[in-house]
Write a structure and sequence with these properties.
Structural class of chain B: alpha+beta
Shape of chain A: elongated
Number of strands of chain A: 9
Order of helices and strands of chain A: EHEEEHEEEHEE
Strand content of chain A: 35-45%
Number of helices of chain A: 3
Strand order of the largest sheet of chain B: 2-1-7-4-5
Oligomer: heterodimer
Largest sheet of chain A: 5 strands, antiparallel
Number of strands of chain B: 7
Helix content of chain A: 25-40%
Radius of gyration of chain B: 12 Å
Amino acid sequence: MIKIQKEDFSVEKEIEEMKNRSRNIGAVVTFLGVAREFSRGRRVMELEYEIYDEMAIKTLEEIRKEAMEKFKVIDIFIIHRYGRIKINENIILIVVGAMHRKEAFEACMFCIDEIKKRAPIWKKEKTKNGNFWVD
Amino acid sequence: MPKIKFFARFRERIGVDVINLDVDGVSLKDIVEMIARDHPEVKEFIEEGFLAVNHRIVNDMKLIVKKNDEIAFLPKFSGG
């Protein structure tokens, strides 16, 4: 399941959903990316994410499939928000359901690393001294 | 006609998000040259980021663009 959305998500609800995907799930690993106040020595007031939707959905789906095949996990959910995101708010959630913890951790790490490298998503940091695209 | 999209820092720098060009069967290099007449900064975009055709990153500037293709100028990514 891949979602690109403006609104926040519930980590608990997604974990429950993953547990319900299969009776063989023995491990659920999540990565939650959160908006941080200090970045590169600057105090950030707010973030804004821009996403090339059509390409990002394809890329995230490819990453998800690659991870499922490579690590033999049961399912993976990826949710990325766009638009304005306040400090401490959720940005991205990856939920991996697997039989065992090792492959769940590995698949989760693979997904976030590949998303950072390959997904057409951009972050803008808004500070008192101006707004800066991070790239 | 091919649709050319600009994102994030590039969109702000060029001041538009989409350009439609009335061409068919020309190379990606030709497209860049055509846009550069009004927006010379696109040549810098090629150096600084990526070009995608139909949602795939491409490096071959000789690639022929067809009339329904979607081209995108993408700055380096910062998602996650």
